[in-house]
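B., you asked whether I could sanity-check this one before it goes into the benchmark set. Here's the sequence:
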Amino acid sequence: MESAALPGRAADAHEHHGPPDPNRSSRVDPQLLGMLLFIISEIMLFAAFFTAYFFIRVALDAPWPAEGDHLPIETGIANSFILFSSSGTMHWALESARRGNRLGLKLGLLTTLLLGATFLAVQVNEYVFLDFAPADSAQGTIFYGLTGLHGAHVAVGLLLLAFASVRAFRGHFSPEEHRGVEIPGIYWHFVDVAWVFVFSSLYLLSAQGIL
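And here's what the prediction gave me:
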C-alpha cells in the first residue's frame, strides 16, 4: 500500500512550479506598502532641501531671493491652481474605477495627465525666463534644486499616469480590481502635497516678506 501511494505523492510534489508563495508579515497590500515606504523616503529627501533652504533664510539671515533676483509669484499661483485641479481629476478617476464607470475613469486619467503635463511645461517656461541661474547664488541653487526635484517627481507621476491610462483603455480595471489606478493616485496626491510646501516656502514667504 505504501509503495502504491508513492507515485501519487510524487505527482503532488511536482504540481507546484516556481518558488513558494511569499509570507506576508503585514496585512497591508504589498503594492500599497511599497508605495507608502517610497513616499516616506521621498519626504526625507525633500526635508534635506528644506533644511538647506531654512538654514539660508534663518541661520544665515540671507535675503530671499538673492539681491536683484525676482520670483514670478503669479506664475506660481497659476501653476498651483493647475496642479491642485489635477488632484481632483485623479480622485474622479479612482472613484469612477471603483464604481465601474469606464468613461469617467478614462476621462479622469487623461485630464490628470494633461494638467500634469501643463504644470511641467509652465515650470520649464518659468526657468527659461528667470533672471538668475543655479550657480549665481546659494538661493538660486536651492530654488532650482527644490523646484527641479519636485518637477522630476511630476515627470515620474506622468509616466505612472500614462501606464494607467493605457491599461484603462485596454479594459484592465474593474470595481473589484483597480490597484493600478489607486497606487498612481496616491503618488500623485503626494506630489500635490509636496507642492504646497514648495510653493508656500519659496513663493509665498518671499512675497509676504516673512522670515
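One thing to flag: Residues 71 and 203 are 7 Å apart (CA to CA). Otherwise nothing jumped out at me.
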